[in-house]
Design brief:
The chain is α+β, with helices and mostly antiparallel strands and 150 residues long. It contains 3 helices and 6 strands; from the N terminus they run αβββαβββα. A hairpin with a 2-residue loop joins β1 and β2. Bound molecules: methionine sulfoxide. The site of methionine sulfoxide has 14 residues, from α2 and β6.
């Protein structure tokens, strides 16, 4: 028995299971909330937003977003939730899907450090209310402890 290798392997298994938990939450949101048409989690790695688990009709080309760029980058920079009622009227918006009309991005923090974010696109204009904001900010706090940081 190579104890050192075993610890590395188990550490990997534990991090995998954290990934799986996040993945299940993404699926839950996508499947349970009608106006959440595309749901993804971005994680901050090497000062970039990297797309983690996502659910939706199609993949996005924006799998790696610099901090400060787009709506996602803005939320990652300020640590504040962004709600865009009409994506066509926001110059920061990085287009992913033709059907998207509105978007919410909620930072995930560990203490004061921003470690990732929840990004949700809706095909409905102005789909996101204060209820979504409160709900998703609470969820972001719940997810925080299950996310591995670098
Ligand atoms: N629209 C985002 C990019 C990510 S996609 O919505 C999945 C933005 O403006 O940052």
């Amino acid at each position: 028995m190579n104890y050192e290798k075993a610890l590395k392997d188990i550490d990997f298994l534990l991090s995998e299971s954290k990934e799986k938990k996040i993945d299940m939450v993404v699926t839950y949101l996508h499947d349970h909330v009608a106006h959440y048409n595309w749901v993804g989690i971005y994680l901050i790695k090497s000062n970039m937003l990297k797309l983690g688990p996502w659910r939706g009709p199609q993949a996005t080309e924006h799998t790696s977003i610099p901090i400060g760029k787009g709506v996602c980058g803005a939320a990652a920079k300020t640590g504040k939730t962004e709600i865009v009622d009409d994506v066509k009227n926001d110059d920061r918006y990085l287009s992913c899907f033709l059907s998207t009309r509105s978007e919410i991005v909620v930072p995930i923090k560990k203490g004061k450090k921003i470690i990732g974010e929840i990004d949700i696109d809706s095909d409905t204009p102005a789909a996101f209310t204060e209820h979504d904001k409160t709900f998703l900010e609470t969820l972001a706090d719940m997810l925080s402890e299950h996310i591995c940081t670098d």
